[in-house]
Amino acid sequence: MTDGQHGNLVAQLAMAGWIPVVIVLFSRLDPRKAAAAAFAAGWMFLPVVVYKIQGIPGYTKMTATCVGILLGALIYDRKTLLGFRFKVVDIPMLLWCTCPFLSSVANGIEGLGVYDGLSQTMYQSITWGLPYFVARVYFSDREGLAILARTVFIGGLIYIPLCLFELKMSPQLHRMFYGFHQHDFTQAIRGEGYRPLVFMEHGLMTAMWMVFSSFIGLWLYHVKALPARVLNMPTLPLVLGLLATTLLMKSAGAVVLLIIGLAFLYLSNKTKNTIFIWILLLIPMTYIVLRTTGIWTGENLSRMAAEQISPERGKSLQIRFDNERILVDKALQGTFFGWGGWGRSRVYDHKGRDISVTDGLWVITLGTRGIYGLVLLLLTIQLPMLLLLYRSPPGGWHTRENAPVAVLAVILCLYMIDNLLNAMVNPIYMLFCGGLCGMLSNPNFLMNQSQTVSLATPSLMRQPATRFITETPTDGPRFVG
Fold first, then answer.
1. How far is CA 8 from CA 12, 48, 457, 460, in A?
2. 1 in a domain, yes or no?
3. Is residue 335 part of a domain?
4. What gap in Å lies between CA 445 and CA 427, rounded to an integer?
5. 67, 171, 369, 411: which has the fewest Cβ within 10 Å?
6. Which domain holds residue 443?
């Protein structure tokens, strides 16, 4: 959507009324359940709009959700909110949120500067830092992470009929409710069918939501960490229905990530060996090094895709590799802190026309935030898994207490791999990141100790679905998959 697209009256009322709704959730629910439900519901159902308000970069669904949670916590759970203590483990996120300031200041002579840096830092802090902070406050233990895992799983179940509707009727729900299509409709056309968007910005965001909901559901069911009934229905048919819907989403890349995640998590736990997890961690770094040094051009992969899948897919992949090459060349001409925003990291021809197409979050970050920002992006997302490997061997990841911890950490690894291809900034991942970092940094934490944490809490799993109805970089990523 464009910044000028504000939607109809329903969209405006939804955005204006969401903060009070979140505050009401805090008055009725346990604060952790209220925060989890607010994030999931806001991301799943609020309109994809950006309202320009003086003093903030933009009022979005994430801004509304974060403000509502902070106000709700301040009113109804002030002691917990003010009890937050900064830890060493929070330094990567702090540096990541403030790196736009350094990028702008480093390019001050080129027209940027302190004001632009503060504005960009505020945007990044709202998008990444506030969800992380909320998770550090409310989800930095096993029970908190179990609540997050259950919420995402239930969110995927709620999305099943909506995805099936759009698979048949095309992506229309956002237009029907809010008066406009949130993304270029042609990108939702896949062959002779459609890829659902529901109320998210792009079909790939929706597909990844369903993939990770399925991942959580399958793993928790495998380790017997789900109750016999969820939402008053048998659990196994729900898990299988969620998986079937996910496979229908017409996003091959997302399904591949699901298969890899399940296989690697299962093998790591079964063999009690960390090699599979280290492969997940090293894939992004290896890819980035090969692409930035020019050692690997990607031509062999695009040729194989053309031969094995379709000529169109091979051509699309090669176009992506070609754009990465020119964007990397431009990025390496900038400062250590990148070119900053406002399209300065993009590539233009001699007539001033933009000839570059941005895909992966990694190359966008390299261009706008430089090597400094790219290292922080990798560290911020992968730190939870590094901590988990340090604190616990994989052999204990299948227990009821530890299953949510392990599956959410693996999801972050898969998210970083997906950032090689796409630029999907989903605040839910930062909830995982903050919760995991807070718990795994606790010096008293023992991963294999026996603790009483019920993942099958009837009060959560059997409440009505309505209780659990839970921005991308400004340089314009193009989603692929």
1. 7, 12, 39, 34
2. no
3. no
4. 26
5. 67
6. 9-289+358-468
